[in-house]
Amino acid sequence: MANRQPIWDISQVEKAQASKNFTTASTINQKPPTSSSKLHNLRNGQINVQTYYDIYIFEERLKQNLLQIKKVQRNYRIITLIWSLFLGYFLYCFVTYKHSTIIYNSENGEIVRYKRNKIYTVCLLITSSIGLYYLLTGKIQRKLNGPSRFTQQCNKTLKPFNLQFHGDHKYRLSFYRRIPRRFVEGYILFVTELKKRSKLKKEMQNKKEKESN
Question: From CA 154, how far away is CA 157, in angstroms rounded?
Fold first, then answer.
């Protein structure tokens, strides 16, 4: 199982060597391959620019999906915190008879009993019912554990293709050692150049907008 460990981490490969290999091995003028040939290229480490582009787009989609799931997780954490505060406050009022009506003995002025405020009692029941519903249905657990479940499902699906998705702050794919090093180096150069061109394009657009204004 040692050969299944992802050792071709993108950050660990030298860009200079990648440039050399990519220049000699890439085939820019090839026709777009079919989906079956793309899979074959990935499994066998064959260089193909269209394959690089497909992997990059796939990586970006995984990243955006995971970020969306983390956004939902963050919202549910906030909702859970607010719910806990309300539940704690209403429970405190119920136990300590806070905001309750005190009934005195008309003869000696002693306290006979406390009459709880119905509004706080109803709020406690509603808050408890909402929390119980989400706990029993498991919805809150699914939302809070969404990112880890998404990453696990992705890696389970990607394993036959010798890929692994990092669900931490890296948000990127890494390759298993079965993928040849030159394929990984070529992919790194492709992504680097693609990002440079995208950045340059944005800078030119911003410059044109400033000039027009």
Answer: 5
| pLDDT the model gives residue 1 | 45
Give per-residue burial for 88-117: e unless 16+ CB within 10 Å, then b. eebeebbeeeeebeeeeeeeeeeeeeeebb
| DSSP annotation of 101 | E
Sign of CA dihedral 38, 172, 162, 61: negative
The ranges assigned to domains in the chain are 2-212
Strand partners, 164: 174
Q: What is the mean pLDDT of each run of 10 residues along the chain (213 residues)?
A: 49 44 42 46 61 90 94 94 93 76 61 69 90 88 91 92 85 87 87 88 85 76
C-alpha–C-alpha distance, residues 49 and 32, integer Å: 9
Q: What's CA 170's distance to the chain center, in Å?
A: 11
